[in-house]
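Provenance and format

Records in this collection were gathered into a single text stream. Each protein contributes a sequence line and a token line. The two records reproduced below are adjacent in the stream.
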Amino acid sequence: MKKINLLILGLFLTSFSFAQSKYDGDGLPRFHDRPSAEEIEFAKQTNFVVSPMAPAPPPSGELRPVAEFEPAEAVLIRYPFHIPMLLIQKLAEEINVITIVANPSEKTTVTNQYLSNGIDTSKCSFLIAPTNSEWTRDYGPWFMAIDDEKVGMFDFTYNRAKYPYNRYNDNAINGHLATSLSMEIYTSSYYLTGGNYMNDGTSQAASSVQQFYEDNPGVTIPTFRAHFLEYLGIEQYHFPDDALGQYINHIDCWAKYLGPNKIMIGEVPPGHPRYQAYEDAVTYFASQTSPWGMPMQVYRVYTPGGSGTKTTPYTNSLILNDRVFVPQTGNQYDEDAMDAYRNAMPGYKVIGINYNDWLNTDALHCRTHEIADRGMLYIKHLPLFGEQSTTDTYTIYADISPYSGEALVEDSLLVYYKIGNAGEWQTRPMTHVAGKKWRGDISCVPEESDVSYYIFAKDESGRRECHPYIGAPDPHRFHAQPTTPNPAIAVSETEFEVAGLNNVDLTFEFAISNGGCGDLTYELSEGDPPAKNGFLLTFEPQSGAVSSGSSQTISVTVHSKDLPAGSYNTSILIASNDPVSDEPELPVLVTIYNGIVVPDTVYVVQNKTNPAFFTISCDYNTDVVIEAIDFAYGDPFEGTVTPADGATFPVTISPSQEITFKAEYTGGEDAGNKILYSTYTVISDVISRDMVIVFIPDGVGIDEQRIDKQSVVVFPNPANNSVSFVYSTAEPTSAVISIYDITGKPVKQISHESSTSGAQTVTWNFENETMLNGMYFYSIRLNEQIVNGKLLIMR
């Protein structure tokens, strides 16, 4: 029965004028679509049968099929070629060409041919292995991505190796190739052929159903689908009838995926016997939903020779990165076919390859095979399309995976977009979400606008990729519904810590940005009442407006006049017209330092043998250099101040360190019982401080009958926020200090009881009292004595 079937098949084939040409390989004529008589005879004589490959466990991880139109690193061809040298020249301009040769002698022959034809041999490599035929598409590998981290190879039993074909050398090529490329290979026991396989690079694939049944009798379609899901990650496998109706049953002879949402299908005239089969295929694929969620786009290329004549094999093309190689035969429809590809694939370079030996069921695609880029930069994205609901911001999410293992160039992860066909391309940076996921926002789209966009990514390996693959020439598109523009406030900082010296204003900055579409208005205020912490924040500007996509820098000043050293908390409140965001409150921690801590008053007995010792310390966060302690005002001849250890100025004080100084009286014997004072300024490289040295008469006390104006020291005078009254008594004393304005109206009275004799200091702090600048009078009653004087307040 088998002999009869083969005989009938041979008669059937020879009855057509389109019988294919013969190709030599290992001494036996070979045919693409059927066994030659010599192959059949060889099978009879040798009784050689290629058994199905032993299946290997499938890859572990999340899988997806890698498509022909994804990034490729090489193309696989075989010598003897049966393709024109022009095609090899064009391939080598784009990519590495791997040529299968049988031995080193053939390698030398091919190298010389390449050199004589001006081909860059640095772009050429060789795989030394025996083959039976030139159809690398049919026996070459399929590829899958594993966890979007690496590329694996899928191998199968080549259906032309099945008895009576016996193309056992072709069947072994994938194993040799995997070894050469150091790739993981996963084998299947099914009889398959690459000419009857195409996938969309995401989750779908398609094959003519007749070939599966013919090569794998008894295996059901659900079983096939489960197998390919397990080994390649194909979630939806399409098995249409073969539109060409030929015995070869290869889908690449009449259809081709151009992208995840595009398919090219041949077109024949209405009177053609396969016309309805082609139209049924178009109807089927047009009714399918692409993995991007949109309907499949079906493109047509006119192939009037679709019945089998050697005229128009246009779907048997090769997509290699950004180029499309289309077989040409000198037919009158060649240029129309080129235009069909240009229309379906804007931005690609469409290259026609003329050759007399292209056949309708055996052309350019059948004799070449792309090798997936193992280090590809893969972008996974579900595009926006059609009508999009009203929103201020359209968020673009993408998983970006550098299979090379190199880091992403984060400032080169961008969303390009434009409004309308005539708009200019604009960019938005993508920000990291988690893992491989990134996002970019398209904001402020005008009402009723068409939006085009694509994603761009770059990694440290130098790879630059777009989604969709070709980028700007054929971007994703959607229509934006009307929107109400709203502002969206963003603040560059969430909290502040500032530090400085008291009585020295501190400043810092932050920015208010508007990421929304409408104008943003804002007003700033201090969160805590200024009196609570003793300082006041002011803002420049305090209020304003920020247009969409812009920002405003705010300068903040902390006024710390007479604020004691320590840490203080306040906040900045931002009121805005953002309808979504709560009113931001930004905490502010203010740390105040004195710089150097000096005593307010040092008392020195009017006797040179009794100097007074005091310390000056540093509470700042860096070293402070005391350059001098100089006389400021008062009587400059009453005393001296020097380092206690005999050192000379300048003196360096480190943080938390104390340095001891001594003050000595130098006024002589004529001071009598008067209380004398001088004010000295401690001059440092950070900030200067005043201190008062009071010289008290030597002895038990002061004769009460001699108390007069010189017995009382009032400082500072003029006064700013406080004033001190210093006097000395021989015994405990009751004192009453009264302050009068220039009209004689009393404004303040202070009572002081001393429990000991000697020098007394009474300080009046009027910082928070309502005291106008001007001249005032003071009257001090010490028991029965009264001392009067003038006090000038200058705030």
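Adjacent record:
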Amino acid sequence: MHLPPLYRIHQRFDVTSLDNVAQSVRDEFAKLDPTDKIRPGQTVAVGVGSRGTHDLKILVATVVECLRAMQLEPYIIPAMGSHGGATGEGQAQMLAELGIDEESVKAPIVSTMGTVALGCVESGAEVFFAKDALAADHIVVINRVKPHTAFRAEVESGLCKILAVGCGRQKGASNMHKYDLAKTIVPAAKLIIEKASVLCGLAVTENASGGTHSVKLVRPKEFPEIDREFLKTAWKLLPKLPVDDLDVLLVDEMGKNVSGAGMDPNVIGFWRREGGERKPDYRILVVLDLTAQSHGNATGIGMADLTTRRMVDQIDFHATYMNAFTSGVLRSVRIPITLENDKAALETALNRSPDPLGIRLVRIVNTGSLETFWATEAVLPELQDQENITVDETPLELIFSDEGRLLSMEN
């Protein structure tokens, strides 16, 4: 098959970021006056999630530094629900690969899966919380605020969610997902704040290129308010493709470090995960590979139409299924049609069109990297007049290795 040439497209996003992330965190702690709650020598459990936050190591290390300056004794706990295969060892390993270990952040890592039931909220959801967090005198959480991949509400992913879901470990996260998260996360977080000694939380937003846009240290009673405020900012910063209608979206890689859903439904179309209006409408989605950082967790592969043998062979079905059982989105782990290699997958997608050379196709590295992408000629007219778009009109060929693997176009 003769493949259509692609053209490099560059998007300009708002990439405003903090000049000095560590100093910004220190400045936030300088505003905190917790003298009514703390005493020297008290312990603090610092909850850290598995989401791919760009400056996570700096954020965690600086929070530990600031807590030690207050004469407190911090230790790190994973706050990531069922990730890492829902084991303490797996979650500690995930933190280590994000750069969070005892040496790098100067604090011990305590990783178990034990939980304590704290009570029920109005929806009927029983709220569970990490036992090793409750063992501390105080609790601090760090989380990026962003649009969720499975529901819409005034509060989505942020400080309330890491308390109610992340710190609930597998048992708590699974139970939360049985109910309407949009209505349950905030009441559950408020119950935790009432029952546990939550000292503060560090909310973070990121720009489209992954840089830290803003940080804010807040007292627990302010968690819902800051989540709402930062979510509005996060929506404005969220990178998307500037085209809503495609025959084929070709995704080089997916993974848990890219999005909790593997591929962000806010980019590829929310309907692919939860149903609803097909906007954007990318009719065939091809995903070629799984990131190494996913450790075989292929949650989200069910949103693709076509994939490769290489992708499927990497799947850790225990970790993947555990994630699906916890979230309740079973369709997210269905295996799409599996082709022998990248070339076969792409040719299968192109064969669905009566005019492969005139096909509307976009290639992206992953849903978290959208500053540069590649598009066929049929897509160019609607991109060329957009102020924030630069089109390189040099045609580029899709090139495969002898084994049928699609080579990178980034160089």
